[in-house]
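Proteins fold reproducibly. Next comes a concrete instance:

***
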Amino acid sequence: MQSLEPYGLTKSEILMICNLRPGEQTLLDCVVEECDERFSSEQQEDILRIVRDALGIKDGEEEDAVAGAVEGEGNGDAVEEEGNGNGMRLRGIGEIEVD
């Protein structure tokens, strides 16, 4: 993500961008602190374009992923983890089972 260097993003902002892959300015605004004050609309669009080009984001993928996580559906990449002694078990995206 060297192409984002000119924008002066923090390491944590870049990490969140890589993990969340924002496709719209609304999500970018949640990920980047003071996004509207730090960047113009054109710069925000440039950042989103760089993310799409580098990570292969398709239009609409973001909304589908968020909706699936909220509804507990996931996207086929469900994670299942055995109990770790704390009485909780991660069953899938958006699901936690408590023993």
Observations:
- The chain has two domains: 2-59, 62-98.
